[in-house]
Amino acid sequence: MTRERIYLFDTTLRDGQQTPGIDFSVDDKVAIAAMLDEFGLDYVEGGYPGANPTDTAFFEKKRTKKAGFVAFGMTRRPGVSASNDPGLASLIQSAGDALCLVAKSWDYHVKVALGTTLEENLAAISDSVAAILKSGKQAMIDCEHFFDGYKANPDYALACVKTAYEAGARWVVLCDTNGGSQPSEVERIVLEVIASGVPGTSLGIHAHNDTGQAVANSLAAIEAGARQIQGTLNGIGERCGNANLVTLIPTLALKEVYTSRFETGVTAEKLAGLTELSRAFDEILNRAPYHQSPYVGASAFATKAGIHASALMKDPRTYEHVTPESVGNFRNVMVSDQGGKSNFLNALKRRGIDVAKDDPRLDRLISTVKEREAEGYAYEGADASFELLARRTFSAIPDFFRVDGFRVMVERRFDALGQLKTVSEAVVKLEIEGKTILSVAEGDGPVNALDLALRKDFGCYQQDIADLELTDYKVRILNGGTGAVTRVLIESGDDDGRRWTTVGVSENIIDASFQALYDSILYKLMKNRGLAGPAE
């Protein structure tokens, strides 16, 4: 059976840039475009040249090798010919293979936002497409607010789509700009657009996620006949985000209901790098990956219930809808107070620790974990601390260093300029290979000061921890009051690209932080020597 082609259009660098708190540099855009190009996207929309210095610089030359490099902009202004519109002219002159122009398709917006007539808006669409085609580039039209416009005035919304298509636009994209449409509405309306004479092979879908259904709406449009999907990496975008391509791509590639009928430009080999792509993008954004992201999240193939773990060990299909390896992720049977022996045996095996089911030390480890979790520890989210605990139970851990004591001071004082400042200082006393080391450091806060002092002088192991980086720090108060028990989770990483998490619990937040810092460094030293980490 011949499968139909679905074209993947990424708008991370344009629509995704409207996400609050995200501001790509030119270098960021170059790196992200290269990642998308290599992964197999059909189109990479890079931004709006002429609208800001970053996008203008980015479009000085083509930034993709295989994917279509797309500039975004607007149709010609009302009352101005396409040849005399400087904005449209600069778009056409920018580097790239295609232009995607936004056009109003809701009569209400045409009258209120554009302040022009319905006929003039249609003429602007037609003239702009003609100008793009004359330049030799591919033309696309984003019909903004299409679904709301169709529900308000179907005849005019259809007229906008038909005008763009008949003028020669390769793609006419139906936009759910406000993100409020439902999948059943999207499917029905796309079917009606196709029935009006515009083929699905020229239609795209651009869905926003304001009801949490951008992915569902995109798939509904595909079911109805649209053949281009627009979206962003990890679903970023203004307000609640855009359709998440990191969810859409594997769904189209792995679910039989789609694989039997459709294909994309992303090969199985490239799909296996999806988790790496998603996390590399989060790294550029300097944010922690969302653990419960479909397919690529750290919890996507994780289970903590003993019954589930037992079934997974017999056959992973019992609790997995696809194989983790197909998207570059991995199975994670976590240990917790809800876990049985199957969880622990699986977790230990992943770390290269082979233990018999009837080994009394296994019962001791399980008992210890459950007791400590009752105190507030959370080993399901602290893989490195669990491994250290397990290795202490089944074998000895090298005595790399010993902390004889530490002190942290927070002082609020006036500086030499008379400005009030809060200063944090930490003192740490270490013993390494029989030598006592005393380190002092100031930091942005007490935990930062403690971390800096702890790693300031690590004797013969200084080079081992040179690339150690703390990437995330989380605090949770486990009960109320000023004497509350505090749990601290610290995520660390190094130049190998590995990440690990450690945990500390105490009534004192500094002490809890110190426990997690201690475990992080110890795990790093063991990892460097092949004594810890997942079994290869």
Automatic annotation (TrEMBL):
InterPro entries: 2-isopropylmalate_synth_dimer, AIPM/Hcit_synth_CS, Aldolase_TIM, Citramal_synthase, LeuA/HCS_post-cat, LeuA_allosteric_dom_sf, PYR_CT
Keywords recorded for this protein, A-Z: Acyltransferase, Amino-acid biosynthesis, Branched-chain amino acid biosynthesis, Isoleucine biosynthesis, Transferase
Reaction catalyzed: pyruvate + acetyl-CoA + H2O = (3R)-citramalate + CoA + H(+)
Alphabetical list of Pfam families matching this protein: HCS_D2 (PF22617), HMGL-like (PF00682), LeuA_dimer (PF08502)
Location of the Pyruvate carboxyltransferase domain: 6-272
Pathway of action: Amino-acid biosynthesis; L-isoleucine biosynthesis; 2-oxobutanoate from pyruvate: step 1/3
EC number(s) per entry: 2.3.3.21
Protein name (Swiss-Prot/TrEMBL): Citramalate synthase
Organism of provenance: Allorhizobium borbori
